[in-house]
C-alpha cells in the first residue's frame, strides 16, 4: 500500500522518524483552513478523554508496583531475621529437655528440632554426656535412643585434639581446651568417657530379651571407642567372645538373601542379630594374629546363619591371612572341602562376602609357608577359580585380578608373571559334590533323562581359565552399563601388566593361543548351556567372535 508520494508502509516503519516527519511536512501541502467551531470542540474533547484514561492507567500501574514493594518489604525481612540456631542454643535445649524427657512434647522437639541440627557439627561437646546418659536411662522412645547412642559414640570416637574431624561439618572449637581455661571448671572427655563406657558395657551385657534392641545399639556404640585404650579393647573382646560362645553352639540353616528371610521364631531372630552384632564389633577391633581365640571366633562366623555376619568373618580371615596364612588355612580345615561352608558362600546372595572369599583364597593359595601342603593350596585355588563363573561382574573381576596376582599395589614382578602363567595354563575342574538333598531326590527318581545327563556333563566339563576370562570379558564389553565397561577395561589393563611382567622375566612355555582358538566338540551347544547356567545376564546375540576378542585384547595389551 502506497500513498500519493509513492512511500510504502514498510518505508515509513523502517525510516528515521525525524527525516520522515521533515519529508512529510515538505511533501504535504499546506494545512487546510480551520474548520467549523463545532468540529474543533469535538476533537479537543476526545483528546482530553484519552489523556484522562492514560493518566488513570498510569496511576493504577504505579499503585500496583508500590503495593508489591510494600508486601515484599514486609515479608522478606522476616525470613532474613530467622538466624540459624547456634551450638550453645542446641546444647541448652538438650539440657532443658533432658529434665522433662518423659513428656511427649519434649521427645518430639528433640527428634525434630534439636538432634538433627546438632548432627551438622563435626564434634560433640563432652558436657552433653550427662544429659545424654540421663536420656538413655529415662527415655523409652526408640528414635530418641537411636540419637542418644549415636552421639555417645561420637563422643567416644572424637580424639579432641583440634576439634576437627575428617568427616567435615561445621567446625567446632577444642572442647578440652575450652574446659581447661573455664574458670568454673568445664567437662572434658577424660571426665565423661569412663562413665559412657561403663553404661554401654552394662547394657551390652544385658541378656534380657526385652532389652535386645538396646543391647545391639550399645555394643555398636562401644566399638567406636579409640583402639589405643587397652582396657576398653579388653572389655570389648570379653563381650564379643561371650556372645559368640552362646550363639555359635546351635547349628542353623543359613538364610537366603542379603538380609535373610522374613519371619522365623523369635529365638532364631535374636540369635542371628547377635551373630551379626558380635562379628561386626569383632571386625572393628584390632587384629590379633597370635590369639588362637580370635582366629577360632572368626572361623566360627563362616558357618553362621546371618549373611552379613559371614561377610564380616571372611573379611577378618582375609586380613589375618596376610600375616598368618598357615594358621588361617589350618583353622578353616574342613570348611574348604567339597560340601563345606566355604563352598556354600559361592551361592550366597551377598556380593561383598564373595569378594572377601576371593581375597582370602588368593592369600592362602599364594602363601610360601604352605608350599609343603600343596593339597591345601589346591583346594583354595579351586574355590578361587570357581568364582570366575560368578554371575556378578564385581566378584568375577576380583577373582581375575587375584589370579593375575593383582590385589594391592605391593605385589612383585614375579607374582604378576606367575599370575599370567596361571591364567594361560590352568584349567578349572568343577568338583563333584552332590548334596544330601540331591542324593535323596535322585534315589527317589527312577532314572534321569539323557538330556539332563548331557547338560550336567557339559557344565562340568573342564575349562581353561583364559577361555573363561575371554568369554566373560566379551560379554562385559557388550554391556550397556558404564561401570561394567570401566571395570572390564581395568581388568584388561592388569592383564597387560601381568603379561608384560611374564615376558620381562623371560618365562617360557607360554602358549597364549592354545585355548583361545581351540573349541571342544559341539561348542555352540556348550556355550549356550554354559551361558544359561552360569551367566544368566549375558547377552545371547553375540556380535564378537573369540578371534575378534583376542585381536582386541592383543591391541590393548
Structure explained in plain terms:
Residues 1-57, 432-465 are annotated as: Disordered. The chain has 557 residues and is an all-alpha fold. Among the domains are: 86-162 and 172-226, no CATH class; 402-428 and 462-510, no CATH class. Helix content is 64%, strand content 1%. It has 26 helices and 2 strands. It has helices at 9-14, 17-27, 37-81, 87-99, 104-118, 129-138, 142-157, 175-181, 189-204, 212-222, 230-247, 266-284, 292-300, 307-323, 325-332, 341-345, 351-365, 374-386, 393-404, 413-425, 436-444, 450-459, 465-477, 482-504, 523-534, 546-556; strands spanning 427-428, 463-464. Strands 1-2 form a two-stranded antiparallel sheet. The chain is flat and about 115 Å long.
**Number of contiguous helices:** 26
- Trace the largest sheet across and list its strands: 1-2
SSE pattern, N- to C-terminal:
HHHHHHHHHHHHHHHHHHHHEHHEHHHH
Uncertain stretches of 5 or more adjacent residues: 23-36, 160-165, 256-262, 433-448, 515-552
What is the CA-CA span between the terminal residues?
A: 77 Å
Number of strand segments: 2
Shape summary? flat
Portion in helices: 55-70%
What distinguishing features does this structure have?
557 residues, mainly alpha, two-stranded antiparallel sheet, 2 strands, flat
